[in-house]
Structures are given as structure tokens and as C-alpha cells.
Automatic annotation (TrEMBL):
PANTHER family: CCA TRNA NUCLEOTIDYLTRANSFERASE 1, MITOCHONDRIAL. One of its GO terms (molecular function) is poly(A) RNA polymerase activity. Keywords: Coiled coil, Magnesium, Metal-binding, Nucleotide-binding, Nucleotidyltransferase, Transferase, tRNA processing. Its cofactor is Mg(2+). Residues 261-382 form the HD domain. SUPFAM superfamilies: Nucleotidyltransferase, Poly A polymerase C-terminal region-like. Its EC number is 2.7.7.19. Pfam families: HD, PolyA_pol, PolyA_pol_RNAbd. It is an enzyme of class 2 (transferase). The lineage of its organism: Bacteria, Bacillati, Actinomycetota, Actinomycetes, Pseudonocardiales. The keyword Transmembrane does not apply. The keyword Ion transport does not apply. This is Poly(A) polymerase.
């Protein structure tokens, strides 16, 4: 794609939303100001994937922006006005309009001293990457590209407008953003970017956990997360953000000795992604599944044991790994539900390997289902993705066995409604039969009956009452 074709494609894509952009530009022009489509919006227009969320920049100051958009916008918010940004909604689109910036960073914290600039060229120079440092003058539809972002986009190269050292010293989060854009766009970082990331990786510790988590999640939800993760590990950035991942390079997987646990985990991640849309072609990327796939074996280095005869074991690595996963995700300030779901998937991912060739009883199948709960569909995908052997016969056998397990689960669910497993007697009946007041003993009796339900399936009423009385006698009631 030559430069002229690229520009023509971008303008064609821009025209798709031009009524909105042109309306806004006309209002700014009437007030004596210029308006530019900028940054990721221009990049995405060039890639033919422009969204309804658009970024603009202007020479108008924030208070002037507010005057221009009031009466035109469907909604206005001022949460970012201290940083020069006014948010607007119009006909289902979200627009962010930011005054030209010429920030100065103290290079101790990440927070800039916000200063406003007077030129589009000055604004573009302070942006993170050249592919995000392009603009379109909406009054003339002319490109502004002082840092050859269009050429970088065509070559799929990620580079910085200033030197990477200057850029990353200003805002170390840009190193993680580099890995994120590699994962989202499939670009290659310029050699000087990789060098700077390697030399400055420790600077990421200046960034808050919440902001790191946001970038990491976007990376994992990208089309090529393996590439982004490999860049993080190769540059040492992961040592400060997600150290358990490079830590897996120390262990050799006992089942797949042709690759280390790190490489195995990246392959499991890719295979889990391939399974995301198995049941739903329109499914969105699944952050919980992807985190669990990446972290499912992080307990192996801590549990590695060299056995007599040359073997290697990792006993209880799923237990250790679940604790490690929860600890890391808490440190990254992930929501509680994500932490618990990922930890539970890591804890359960190995259980299927006790299934053998179908030796599990119906009781064991029930427990597998009830322990997974709502995570069962994700657990199915994780377990299937965890097979990375190159032995096609072995891989096919494992998949067939799991097919059989899923069929058994479906049969038992149809017969017993496993999603709603409850004891055959409820709390009120337990209290009435045993003459108990509400309290801990009722809960213990309920739990005992639930265990029986899991072991033996549904009991008829008389049998359940007999079992309850037997338990009560054994417990001195």
C-alpha cells in the first residue's frame, strides 16, 4: 500500500463519520479555532477499523471548548478538564476533545505538569508512538504527519516520535503500551524501542498498579497476546509486572519435555483463545479464561522435584498456583470476582487428569461440575487447551476422553439438574425432624445431606430422613 492509497483509504473511512466530524469542525471554525482528528482515531481510520469513539485535538482552551460544544452535544462531561479534555456524546458516538498539550514531566512520578501548546506539531511530538502521532485537519482533510507515522504504519513498526529513552522517562507506562500495541496490532517494535525497554524496565515501578492492570488486560484481550507477553519477558518488563510468567522458564514440564513451562503456557493461552468462539462465533475475548490459561502452571517452579531415575514432578502445583495467581492479581488490583474465578480455574485445571479412561464415578463427575459451578464452560476450554503434546495420537485420545466426560456431564445434568444441586431436605425440614432451633448444627446437617446427594444422586424422602437421623445419632443429637 503506497502513501497516496493509504491517505485515500483514510479519507474514505473518515467520510463515513464526516457529518459528525464536519459539524464539530464547522463550530470550531466559526469560533476561530482549528480542529483535528488525532492519534488512535487516525491510525484506525488508516487501518479501516475506525470506531464510534473519536479523539480530537484543538488550539481552543478547555473553557472555549465547553462554549463551542454546549447546545450541540447530546451530553458533556468535564472529568478530564484539568488535563485539557472535554468529553462529548453525539448521536451514539463518544468524542474526546483535548487542547494541544506541551506537557513537562518531573520523571519521578508519572504525573505531568499540564501545559497547553499552540501547535499541532508540538502536540504530536509528545505522543507515545509515531503511529499515534498523525492528525487530519478537518477543515482541509489534509494529513499532518511530521514523524512519518504513515510509513511506520505501512511497515507495521512501533517507534517513538522522540527518542525512546526520552519518551519512556517521561511516562514509563509507554513501555507497557508498546507491548499492548504489539498484542493488539501485530506490529514489531523498532530495535531502539526494545533496547530502551530493556534498559529502563525497572522504571515501570513508578506506575500505579491500577494503570498497569488496565494495559495488561488490554494486551491479553488483543489478537496477538503471545507477542506482547514475549516482548515483556524478553525486555525484563514482566519481571516487574508479572514476574511469575518469566519465572516459569526455570521449570521443564514433565509431560512436554520438548519445551519449558513458559512456552507451554503461551501455547495453552493461544489454544484457549482458539476455543473461545467454539460455542459462540460472536463471543467477546474472555479475560478470565486468558488469565487462567497464562497462569495455570505458575505453581510449577515452586513445587518442582527431581525424582530418582531422572523424572521431574510438580505435586500440588495447582494448589500452590491458585494461591500465587490470587496474590498476583490482588497486587494488580483486579476486581475480586476476576481474582476468585481465575484462582478457582487454576485450582481445578488438573483434576481431569484423574479421570483416566473414564474411571470416575458419577459422584466424582457431580463434584467436578459443582466445584466448577458457573466456571464449567471455561474449565472445559482450559483443560482442552492444556493439551500441547506433539504426539497426535495422544492428543486425540485426550480430546476423546474429555468428549466422553462432557457427554457424561450432560447426561447427569439432564437427569439431576446439577446446576441446582441441593440436599433432599431443606433447612426447615431438618429443624422439624430433629427438633433443632436455627443454628450451626442445622448447617452441618444440611452439608452432610448435600455430600450424600453428590455421592449417591437424588434420595427419596424416606431415605433422606433415615440418613439424617443416622447422622444425628452419630453426632449425639
Amino acid at each position: 500500500m503506497n502513501e497516496l492509497t493509504a491517505k485515500r483509504n483514510a479519507v474514505t473511512e473518515l467520510m463515513r463519520i464526516s457529518p459528525l466530524a464536519d459539524e464539530l469542525a464547522a463550530r470550531f471554525a466559526a469560533a476561530g479555532h482549528r480542529l483535528y482528528l488525532v492519534g488512535g482515531s487516525v491510525r484506525d481510520a488508516l487501518l479501516g477499523r475506525l470506531s464510534a469513539d473519536l479523539d480530537f485535538t484543538t488550539d481552543a482552551r478547555p473553557e472555549q471548548i465547553l462554549k463551542i460544544v454546549r447546545g450541540w452535544a447530546d451530553g458533556v462531561w468535564e472529568a478530564g478538564i484539568a488535563f485539557g479534555t472535554v468529553g462529548v456524546t453525539k448521536r451514539g458516538s463518544t468524542l474526546e476533545i483535548t487542547t494541544f498539550r506541551a506537557d513537562v514531566y518531573d520523571r519521578v512520578s508519572r504525573n505531568p505538569e499540564v501545559t497547553f501548546g499552540d501547535s499541532i506539531e508540538g502536540d504530536l511530538k509528545r505522543r507515545d508512538f509515531t503511529v499515534n502521532a498523525m492528525a487530519i485537519d478537518l477543515s482541509t482533510k489534509q494529513f499532518v504527519d511530521p514523524h512519518d507515522g504513515l510509513d511506520a504504519l505501512r511497515r507495521k513498526v512501533l517507534d517513538t516520535p522522540a527518542t525512546p529513552e526520552e519518551s519512556f522517562a517521561d511516562d514509563p507506562l509507554r513501555m507497557l503500551r508498546a507491548a499492548r500495541f504489539v498484542a493488539q496490532l501485530g506490529f514489531e517494535p523498532a530495535p531502539r524501542v526494545v533496547t530502551a525497554m530493556t534498559e529502563m524496565a525497572g522504571e515501570i515501578e513508578r506506575i500505579t498498579a491500577e494503570r498497569v492492570q488496565t494495559e495488561l488486560s488490554k494486551l491479553l484481550l488483543g489478537r496477538f497476546p503471545r507477542r506482547g507477553l514475549e516482548l515483556m519477558v524478553d525486555t525484563g518488563l514482566a519481571d516487574h509486572v508479572l514476574p511469575e510468567v518469566p519465572g516459569m522458564r526455570l521449570a521443564i514440564d514433565e509431560h512436554h519435555q520438548h519445551k519449558d513451562v513458559y512456552q507451554h503456557s503461551l501455547t495453552v493461552l493461544e489454544q484457549a483463545i482458539a476455543l473461545e468462539r467454539r460455542d459462540d462465533p460472536d463471543a467477546e475475548p474472555d479475560l478470565v479464561l486468558r488469565l487462567a490459561a497464562l497462569l495455570h502452571d505458575i505453581g510449577k517452579p515452586a513445587t518442582r522435584k527431581f525424582e530418582a531415575g531422572g523424572g521431574v514432578s510438580f505435586h500440588h502445583h495447582e494448589v500452590v498456583g491458585a494461591k500465587m495467581a490470587r496474590k498476583r492479581l490482588r497486587a494488580l488490583k483486579y476486581p475480586k470476582q476476576i481474582i476468585e474465578d481465575v484462582g478457582q480455574l487454576v485450582f481445578l485445571h488438573l483434576r481431569f487428569h484423574g479421570y483416566g479412561k473414564g474411571e470416575w464415578t458419577d459422584s466424582a463427575v457431580r463434584r467436578y461440575v459443582t466445584d466448577a459451578g458457573e466456571l464449567l464452560p471455561r474449565l472445559h476450554k482450559l483443560v482442552r487447551a492444556d493439551c500441547t503434546t506433539r504426539n497426535k495420537r495422544k492428543a486425540a485420545a485426550l480430546q476423546r476422553t474429555y468428549d466422553e466426560l462432557e457427554e457424561r456431564i450432560a447426561r447427569i445434568q439432564a437427569e439431576e439438574d446439577l446446576a441446582k444441586v441441593r440436599p433432599d431436605l431443606d433447612g426447615n425440614e431438618i429443624m422439624k425432624i430433629l427438633g433443632l432451633p436455627p443454628g450451626p448444627m442445622v448447617g452441618k446437617a444440611w452439608k452432610h445431606l448435600k455430600e450424600l446427594r453428590l455421592d449417591r444422586g437424588p434420595l427419596d424422602h424416606d431415605e433422606a430422613v433415615a440418613e439424617l437421623r443416622r447422622w444425628a445419632e452419630e453426632n449425639g443429637l
